[in-house]
Every structure is written in C-alpha cells, then in structure tokens.
C-alpha cells in the first residue's frame, strides 16, 4: 500500500516538473470553424450589347462594307443603298427653290413699286394688296421647299446603313443588288469590347458572390486560363420557375479573343448544409473505430469524420458540435 502511494506521488510530481510550455500546449484550445462546400457554376460569354440594324429607307443595296466577323470602322458604315432617285429629288427641289427666289424678288419689287404708286394715288389699293399677297405666297412656298430640302438631306443620310463604331457583325442578311424595304433587318451587331457572362444564382450563392467584392475570378475552361470579372448588373426580380436571381458578370480585360460562347466556371464557397465544421487533425481522438473531440472540461463528444479539408484540417459533423464551439487541440 505504501509502495502504491509513493508511485502516485511520483507521477504527480513528474507532471508538475514538465516545462511550462508543454503544460500550456496540452491545454491549448481551438474554435470549430464552419465548413464550406464548393459550388462550381458554368456560364457562357456573350456580347456586352447587341442590336439589330434595320433599313430606314427602301432601296437597292449598292455595296456592303462588312461581312460576318468584321469590325465596323470609325464611321460605322455597314452598307450603302442606291441614292439615284433621292439625288434627283434634291436637284428638283433646289431648282424649284431658285424659281421661287426669282418670284419672291420680283413680287418684292412690284410690292415696293405699288406702295409708291398708291401713296401718290396713281394705283388702286387692291392692286397693292394683290402684290403683297403674291409676295407672301412666294415667301411661304420658298420656306416650304427649304424644309423639304432638309428632309431630303436627312433621308439621304439614312441611305447609308450605319451601326456603332467598333461593333462586330454577327449576322448579315443582305447582299449587293438586293432590294430592301423600310424596316427590314439588314444585320445583327454585337459589342465585343467587353463580355458578359449571365448566371442564375440562389440567395446563398448570390451572397457568396457579393462577399468576393471586386476580385471575382472566372476560369475559361476551354482555354484553361483565369480572368478577372466584376458584377455588371443584378436583376431586381427573379426567375419564377427556378426562383433564382439573374446576375451578369462582365469581363473587361484578358489575353484572349473576345467572342461569345466561351465556357466559364465560377467557384463559390457556400456554407455546408449539414452543419459540418473544420477541426485540426490533432484534435481527433480515435477509439473503437469512432472519433471524438475533447472539450476543455474533459468531456468527450462523438463526431463523424467526413473527410479532409485545407491546411491539415478535418471535416466532421455532430449534432452536439457547432461552429464557434471550443475543443482541445491535443487531448
């Protein structure tokens, strides 16, 4: 009996004689961290903006300056319609203006002459009134022709089918020699100076995306390169069928050809729906094919090992373990 007491005393003394750093390490605790699951979403690039180019005048296609895939120049000219008849209308209008200017000048002189004659009582007032009326009529006709000339000049501009400078031709509907009517589609254009990638996100996915701020990274899977993107616009509504939020990400820079149809991947870290947590590998105690965590009070908590995580962490789950709970690092 005396021998057992001496042995117990020796064990107690050996523990107290351990270095202070070792005793502190044995009491070190950690806080369970909520585990995240990685969601990979796929999207495809498309033009930043697109438009349908429509003919504003009817006419025969004289020439087409751009084909599918071409970029419109600084003037934005896509095609030119024949302007023969509009130019003839302009010549007729200007000739009529010259005639009316001559009439206007004639009636002005006649009006001034009859004013003098009426003043000297050598002509009737009615004759002066007729000349004043003719003078005003010529003036109004001349103004009408001037307005008509501006209309014809504006129509002349619309015989040139012009799109935004720098945009690319996606689809071409016309060929030289064809007749196009007013309102007919002639081309589909797209702005590929920047790319949009549309995604439909759940509420949790959208919150995880916003947490990334301006540093959103997409991977172009076909080219195997990462690119930076930012949130361009977010729909205030939602898709009634999928009940997801429509979000467009914009890619403005990248060392690759900007075009539509490039597959992209967006990786989001989402909270684990099962409530799993991350713990250090050293915190797990294995006994009888089961795993346990040790609380600072010395109580064992059984957990289920789900797998490995980053930095030598382990994913575990238990109804009694929640994110923020404290356990021993090395029980």
Automatic annotation (TrEMBL):
Keywords, sorted A to Z = Signal
Record has Manganese as a keyword: no
Q: Name one GO cellular component term.
A: efflux pump complex
Signal in keyword set: yes
Gene Ontology terms, MF aspect? efflux transmembrane transporter activity
InterPro entries per the record?
RND_pump_MFP
The signal peptide stretch is 1-24
Family, similarity comment: Belongs to the membrane fusion protein (MFP) (TC 8.A.1) family.
Q: Indicate what this protein is called per its UniProt record.
A: Efflux RND transporter periplasmic adaptor subunit
Question: Can you name the source organism?
Answer: Pseudodesulfovibrio cashew
């Amino acid at each position: 009996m005396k021998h057992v007491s001496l042995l117990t005393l020796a064990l107690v003394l050996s523990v107290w004689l351990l270095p202070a750093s070792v005793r502190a390490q044995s009491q070190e605790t950690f806080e369970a961290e909520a585990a995240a699951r990685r969601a990979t979403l796929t999207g495809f690039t498309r033009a930043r903006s697109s438009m349908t180019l429509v003919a504003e005048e009817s006419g025969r296609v004289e020439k087409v300056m751009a084909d599918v895939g071409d970029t419109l120049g600084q003037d934005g000219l896509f095609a030119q319609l024949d302007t023969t008849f509009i130019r003839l209308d302009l010549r007729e209008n200007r000739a009529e203006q010259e005639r009316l200017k001559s009439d206007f000048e004639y009636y002005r002189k006649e009006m001034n002459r009859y004013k003098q004659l009426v003043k000297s009582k050598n002509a009737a007032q009615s004759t002066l009134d007729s000349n004043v009326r003719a003078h005003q009529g010529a003036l109004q006709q001349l103004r009408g022709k001037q307005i008509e000339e501006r209309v014809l000049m504006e129509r002349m501009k619309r015989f040139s089918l012009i799109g935004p400078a720098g945009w690319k031709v996606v689809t071409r509907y016309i060929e030289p020699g064809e007749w196009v009517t007013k309102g007919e589609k002639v081309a589909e254009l797209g702005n590929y100076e920047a790319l949009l990638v549309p995604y439909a996100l759940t509420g949790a996915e959208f919150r995880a995306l916003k947490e990334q701020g301006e540093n959103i990274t997409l991977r172009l899977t076909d080219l195997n390169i990462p690119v930076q993107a930012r949130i361009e616009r977010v729909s205030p509504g939602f898709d009634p069928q999928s009940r997801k939020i429509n979000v467009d990400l914009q890619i403005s820079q990248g060392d690759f050809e900007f075009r539509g149809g490039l597959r992209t991947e967006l990786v989001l870290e989402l909270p684990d729906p099962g409530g799993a947590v991350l713990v250090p590998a050293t915190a797990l105690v294995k006994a009888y094919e089961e795993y346990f965590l040790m609380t600072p009070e010395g109580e064992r908590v059984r957990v289920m090992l789900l797998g490995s995580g980053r930095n030598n962490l382990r994913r575990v789950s238990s109804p009694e373990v929640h994110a923020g709970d404290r356990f021993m690092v090395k029980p």
